[in-house]
Design a protein that fits this description.
With 903 residues, this protein is α/β, with parallel strands linked by helices. Helices cover 35% and strands 24% of the residues. The protein is globular, with a radius of gyration of 32 Å.
């Protein structure tokens, strides 16, 4: 099989591995001259009834000609892709340009015995990805009317299809989604994601619902990793077949030992590998030869062998967990293939971690709380199976009600976000924000890039995906305790009940700190509470029952507060007294809304206490409620639950159509700059204006002046007071460098300012930018940074000199929807300045949102824009204008983040 193939010197696509509907792995790559024999043989073996497309309905006599045409060196406007299952060719797909500009004819062929596995659809997706990158706007195809299998491929692809029947042949035309604003793109990506989900689940069933497990490297000595994993599998109650592999032992843990992997029966579901690093790839290859379906590689320190390990797994179609991992567990099946000290309890939380130590801790906490675990994977170095895969599994797993992640890196953040957003509509997805230290920040050459810290980027990803992001393990466990056993609050209004006034005050403060409001109880509720409670009780909210309260009236008080229409959730805080055990009263309260308790005599940070079943989200969850040691912990958990519910209820918004875009011109300008400067760099001022104009991004009128007299003439042309900005090599932050002269009136002041700039920068001065002096409005920053992993990140915040001093920023990943743009504007602390503050007129937020959307679209369309900095942008009641703009261009390789592929 040949390697990557190029078109006009440009790679069509690398070799890619992907999953079929039955979970098997195929390789997809471009066709080359060496493939002609395989293509011809595949065609000759196809039956006459296999009329997948008329284009490929060939007689054996014509097969050789067709094979040569498909496999010869690629031609401009033509692409051919092959699908290989091991060493067998199982699919061919191609497109070739027609006489109509931007339209290509597409064709497929799949062997008779491989129909129904999704090969043609998978190849179609990859052709679409290649075609989009090359400007193809539509595919056409012809199929016989009775060829329902091929017609179904097109119908199910998720692309809009136009059909025309003529002489028994159906001519199909389907537009290729052009960009994020194309309404058909979402539908297409949803269809792709659904197919990927089904294939992913099929490939994971052996790993997460196994019937047999082998442990390769199970030592005779206790206290070794392989031996403890074997012991945990045996003592955990796994009912499937277990095969220890050790050439020096006859039996281990009461099981007969096999001398080598070659002695395994065929098609063992999981092989856990705990052997020294030099032996890992050989063991993996032997596992593949025996038909093992998935590997869990505990061994670390593989170095360069890691690539060989992954290649072996792809060759034999084995899913891989690790290397450098803690193992996997499926407690409901009794499977504990880890070297933990205790067995995790079965339950409703799915757990995936990269850190084995974090996994040990969370398994323990979830088990101790009684939440339990449905399935667990420590993915370690994450060569293959990742959080994306686990989320996909949990989406269809009826046992899993809560997803918990600890992720240190992202292979495909955009696919992760799309998957998490879909799963988050079904269950809460929790994670910890890791890597928040200053050491994780990269050096930046512009204000925008400096704001795009790892923390900002992670927060943007998680917020848009609806993930509940916590700042530590303790906070994660606290939130999990509430979300696992309580319904979601319908809003942010919290009814507080306490038998100690000071504790109620602390609870109210904690609610305010976590975006919650203390509920104001209705008059009717207050009157009923006054009859229930001792004299001196406070009934307006927070409710102070006084310490003299008994258990029964306290229970009735909780029920009254929860029944108030102005209450979305209840936070109850108690201190111990000799009068009554209020913990029992809390558990006995029939409350149909979320309830969290803070028991100030409790030594455990959080635990679950018995409660009535009323209001629990489903029958599978236990009738319990979370009890915290401190009101701050309870309020924090309720805040996360309320925010998660608000995200689920919020409209996602749409990526709007934008008028007046000249995308082709913008791409040409970026390409021209890179042709002259292959390593990239900062665009000159004139080129910045031209590129922004392609997206109708409003920039204050500017004139470039190369001399003092030109500056005077430009100032006279613009009229009124002007600003001079130095243009000098290597200049980034103009204000700090003294490169900006403001409020210049008349020729004399302009000349003096130019002379000062010339003296300051000397030979580095290449000219000045002359702009009118703007007054009024609010200075904001709008920018983009291309994150190497996450993609374009739009940053918004206070602008001018306040940008770095105050650090008031919000950020979201592209593509921005209209709702995202609104969230950005409202998401900064200075938002009140934009909506009118103390008599100042509100700015035109519609124009500001429009600017954010255009910047987002530019960043998505032109990946070569590495940084874009509009600072300041003057936002006023009559519109927005960027006063200063910088753009850095760098080489970029377009990559489809949603293409179905394995790592």
């Amino acid at each position: 099989m040949s390697g990557d193939v190029t078109e006009a010197g440009r790679p069509i696509m690398p070799r890619i591995y992907a999953l079929l509907t039955d979970g098997s792995t195929v390789e997809i790559r471009p066709a080359g001259p060496a493939d002609a024999v395989a293509v011809q043989a595949m065609h000759e073996a196809m039956s006459p009834e296999n009329l997948y497309l008329r284009f490929f309905s060939l007689s054996p006599a014509n097969a050789e000609r067709e094979a040569t045409r498909i496999s010869r060196e690629p031609r401009p406007g033509a692409v051919a892709l092959l699908a290989w299952l091991g060493d067998r060719l199982v699919g061919v797909a191609s497109y070739e340009s027609t006489e109509k500009p931007g339209v290509a004819e597409v064709a497929f062929a799949v062997p008779d015995d491989m129909h129904g596995k999704g090969i043609a659809t998978l190849l179609l997706e990859h052709l679409v990805s290649v075609a989009r990158d090359r400007g193809v706007r539509a595919f056409t195809a012809e199929a016989l009317a009775e060829n329902r299998a091929m017609l179904t491929v097109f119908a199910d692809a998720g692309l809009p299809v136009r059909r025309q029947l003529s002489d028994g042949v159906v001519e199909l035309t389907f537009p290729i989604p052009a960009g994020d604003a194309d309404r058909s793109l979402d539908s297409y990506l949803d269809s792709v994601a659904a197919r990927e989900s089904r294939a992913d689940v099929a490939s994971l069933r052996y790993l997460l619902h196994p019937a047999s497990v082998a442990v390769v490297g199970a030592s005779r000595r206790r206290g070794t990793v392989g031996r403890e994993i074997l012991r945990n599998i045996v003592t955990g109650g796994f009912s499937g077949e277990v095969y220890p592999v050790n050439p020096r032992a006859r039996s281990l843990e009461g099981l007969h030992c096999l001398a080598s992997v070659a002695d395994l029966p065929e098609h063992v579901d999981i092989a856990v590998i705990a052997v020294p690093p030099p032996a890992v790839t050989e063991v993996a290859a032997h596992c593949g030869q025996r038909g093992v379906r998935s590997l869990v590689v505990i061994t670390s320190g593989l170095g360069a062998q890691g690539a060989d390990l992954l290649a072996i797994c792809r060759r034999y179609g084995m899913r891989l967990v690790g290397p450098n991992c803690f193992g996997v567990a499926v407690p409901p099946l009794g499977l504990d293939a880890t070297f933990g000290a205790g067995h995790p309890k079965p339950g409703s939380a799915g757990l995936v971690v990269q850190s084995g130590g974090i996994g040990i801790s969370l398994l323990g906490h979830l088990s101790q709380l009684g939440i339990g675990v449905s399935s667990f994977a420590s993915v370690g170095d994450k060569y293959d199976v990742s959080s994306n895969d686990m989320l996909t599994w949990w989406e269809q797993d009826e046992r899993t009600k809560l997803a918990v992640l600890y992720v240190e890196s992202f292979g495909s953040p955009r696919k992760f976000a799309r998957t998490a957003r879909r799963v988050g509509q079904r269950m809460p997805v929790l994670t910890v924000l890791g890597g928040r230290s200053a050491a994780g920040q990269r050096a930046a050459a512009s204000h925008t890039a400096a704001a795009a810290t790892p923390l900002v980027t992670q927060e943007a990803l998680f917020a848009q995906a609806g993930i509940v992001a916590l700042h530590g393990l303790g906070e994660l466990v606290e939130a999990a305790a509430l979300l696992a056993c309580q319904p979601l609050p319908a809003g942010d209004r919290i009814g507080i009940v306490s038998n100690a006034g000071g504790a109620g005050v602390l609870a109210a403060d904690a609610c305010g700190d976590n975006g919650l409001r203390v509920a104001a109880l209705s008059g009717g509720t207050q009157r009923r509470l006054a009859k229930l409670l001792p004299s001196g009780a406070a009934v307006t909210g927070p409710v102070d029952t006084t310490a003299a309260i008994g258990g029964e009236p306290f229970r009735a008080c909780l029920e009254e507060v929860a029944a108030d229409d102005g209450v979305d959730a209840v936070l109850v805080v108690t201190v111990p007294t000799a009068i009554a055990d209020l913990t029992q009263a809390i558990g006995a309260a029939a409350v149909a809304k979320p309830i969290a308790a803070a028991l100030l005599d409790q030594t455990q940070t959080v635990r679950l206490i018995p409660g009535v079943a009323t209001g629990t989200p489903d029958a599978d969850r236990p009738a319990t409620m979370p009890a915290y040691a401190y009101p701050e912990s309870a309020a924090r958990a309720l805040g996360h639950a309320a925010a998660y519910h608000a995200w689920r209820e919020r409209q996602r918004g749409q990526v709007p159509d934008l008028a007046g875009l000249r995308t082709a011109d913008a791409r040409a300008k970026a390409a021209a700059f890179l042709a002259a400067s292959p390593d990239g760099g900062w665009l000159p001022a004139g080129a910045v204006s031209d590129l922004l104009a392609c997206y109708q991004i409003p920039l204050v009128p500017s004139r470039v002046a190369a001399s003092e007299q030109q500056a005077v003439d430009a100032a006279a042309e613009l009229g009124g007071p002007v600003v001079l900005k130095a243009q000098a090599t290597g200049l980034v932050h103009k204000t700090e460098a003294g490169a900006v002269k403001l409020g210049l009136h008349g020729e004399q002041e302009v000349r003096a300012a130019y002379q000062e700039l010339a003296a300051t920068f000397g030979a580095k001065l290449t000219g000045v930018l002359v702009q009118p002096m703007l007054t009024g409005g609010v200075e904001v920053l709008v920018g983009v940074v291309q994150e190497p992993v996450f993609g374009p990140l739009v940053v918004f915040g206070l602008g001018g000199v306040a940008t770095e001093v105050l650090g008031d920023h919000a950020a979201k990943l592209t593509p921005l929807t209209d709702a995202d743009a609104d969230d950005l504007i409202r998401g900064v602390h200075a938002a009140p300045l934009l909506f009118g503050h103390r008599g100042t007129p509100p700015v035109d937020t519609g124009a500001l949102a429009g600017l954010l959307l255009r910047v987002s679209r530019l960043a998505d369309d032109i990946p070569e824009v590495a940084e874009l900095d509009l600072n300041p942008v003057i936002a006023s009641h009559d519109g927005v204008q960027a006063v200063d703009a910088r753009i850095r261009i760098s080489p970029a390789q377009p990559r489809d983040p949603f293409l179905r592929r394995l790592r």
